[in-house]
UniProtKB/TrEMBL annotation:
Protein's name in the database: Ubiquinone/menaquinone biosynthesis C-methyltransferase UbiE
Record function comment: Methyltransferase required for the conversion of demethylmenaquinol (DMKH2) to menaquinol (MKH2) and the conversion of 2-polyprenyl-6-methoxy-1,4-benzoquinol (DDMQH2) to 2-polyprenyl-3-methyl-6-methoxy-1,4-benzoquinol (DMQH2).
Family label: Belongs to the class I-like SAM-binding methyltransferase superfamily. MenG/UbiE family.
Positions contributing to S-adenosyl-L-methionine binding: 77, 98
Originating gene: ubiE
Enzyme class of the recorded protein, top EC level: transferase
Pathway of action: Quinol/quinone metabolism; menaquinone biosynthesis; menaquinol from 1,4-dihydroxy-2-naphthoate: step 2/2; Cofactor biosynthesis; ubiquinone biosynthesis
PROSITE patterns: SAM_MT_UBIE
Gene source species: Roseomonas fluvialis
Pfam families, alphabetized: Ubie_methyltran (PF01209)
Reactions mediated catalytically: a 2-demethylmenaquinol + S-adenosyl-L-methionine = a menaquinol + S-adenosyl-L-homocysteine + H(+); a 2-methoxy-6-(all-trans-polyprenyl)benzene-1,4-diol + S-adenosyl-L-methionine = a 5-methoxy-2-methyl-3-(all-trans-polyprenyl)benzene-1,4-diol + S-adenosyl-L-homocysteine + H(+)
EC number annotated for this UniProt entry: 2.1.1.163, 2.1.1.201
Transferase recorded as keyword: yes
Transmembrane portions of the chain: none
Record keywords, A-Z: Menaquinone biosynthesis, Methyltransferase, S-adenosyl-L-methionine, Transferase, Ubiquinone biosynthesis
Amino acid sequence: MDTAPPPIAPHATLPRHYADDGERDRYVQALFDGGAASYDRINAIFSLGTGARYRRDALKRAGLAPGKRLLDVATGTGLVAREAVRILGRPEDVVGLDLSAGMLREARASLPNPLVQARAEALPLADASVDLVSMGYALRHVPDLVGTFREYHRVLRPGGRVLLLEIDQPASPVALAAVRFYLGRVVPGLSRIIGRGERDSRMMRYFWDTIDACVPPETITAALAEAGFADVGCDVQLGIFRAYGALRP
């Protein structure tokens, strides 16, 4: 009898944050629920250039245009969804989805589009119902890359695309040391001051630790291909900002 292959996690267990993979979902949900109120303020200061224009340009390069429908997975406070609404002109054509009730509460305060609380690997959408699936800087929080990508493939219409924005480690050892110091120490330290103390500092430490432990880009592109996507590619800017793209045949 054939057995299902083991899940491909985006990173190994992080004992600094949770004891085992069974605790990861609860930990991540509580972390982002608690940090939601400060997230936009922290992101605006420490985005390293990945602001509204970067997100908007990435969506346009992925083919988002008026008349299409977008699903923004792990929408958070709505940073990607907000740019999608500006492109499409119709809030009802942008569906934001997140596991964190706290993040969705913040998003609802400023966004008019539909928002849904659900998991990336269990999307409550019909087959072939959207033209683009986006995910901004949250790929490292899912339990299984291939399983998640298969859900994206299912809800996309033929010819639709997936866009995954991520931060990666730079190839240069010197650049890696600088980024590790900045994102791993400076950002968590300042987040404690400009945010809500240790809770927000811990959220940003987790943010970096997942980047530091993340599987290489080749594993992500291979998982997209295994899930049935074609034309898999990755655009890299400044050595650390990656925009993975793929086509649903």
